[in-house]
Amino acid sequence: xxxxPVHFADSLVADILxxxxxxxxxxxxxxxFFTSGLAxxxxxxxxxxxxxxxxxxxxxxxPVFMCxxxxxxxxxxxxxxxxxxxxxxxxxxxxxYCFQLxxxxxxxxxxxxxxxxxxxxxxxxxxxxxxxxxAVSSVYSFLWDIIMDWGLFxxxxxxxxxxxxxxxxxxSFYWLxxxxxxxxxxxxxxxxxxxxxxxxxxxxxxFAAGEVFRRAVWCVFRIENECVNNFEHYxxxxxxxxxxxxGMPHLDLLNFPKRPVMLPTVAxxxxxxxxxxxxxxxSSASASTTPGDLAI
Length: 296
What we know:
Elements: H1 8-18, H2 21-35, H3 44-47, H4 52-55, H5 57-84, H6 87-116, H7 125-149, H8 172-193, H9 201-229, H10 264-278, H11 284-288, H12 291-295
């Protein structure tokens, strides 16, 4: 994006990459650590605090790579708006990623002020604005996850504020996923600021692992909503017929044959179509007139 059309797999992979902020930052540090020659020194840890990898790269190089997934996803939404000409939901979704980019960039800029005075900085005007941006971005993303990506919180739903069509039988799964997404979205704030403010590597790793787990749960319900509602119109048709596996005992999913199996209903339909196609079409004259009429 934005040079090529966006498919569902493209947007799903880009969303997954936005949750790998900690992994991306570790990749940048590892690349710098090995290419700068620190890994080949007798005591590399003693040189790390004064090296370029810990002074300049985290402040200028790492934030660029951390912002790339959000930038790619924002460009995908603009491309989808160009292809579909629907401002909703694509431009509204673009605003969500703009907020996330703003939160990421503000974390980089405000980290300089935080380093000057770590005790009074959070209550300064800059610190208050930074916390406000993070809070708005988290709430915006959470509401979009639940209402748009998952299709939940429907007031008139017969499933208690969820939606009418649910593929999971237990509604408690959805409420547990909503709670997990709420907690995970605010843990995401700690994840994006971990390389800039927080120094506890154990806590940062736990928050990053929690974000990956939240994204895995998000993918399950996102794919479910796309199959049920065709939310972003990736398919030309909304309804996807289900394969009646339970009603056909000869279909064994564990020992499924390598060659495709044609269902009886599909085979019968194809035979009818072939018989119709093989019948020569009647001429208009023979269909509308009789031999007596032709003689006259």
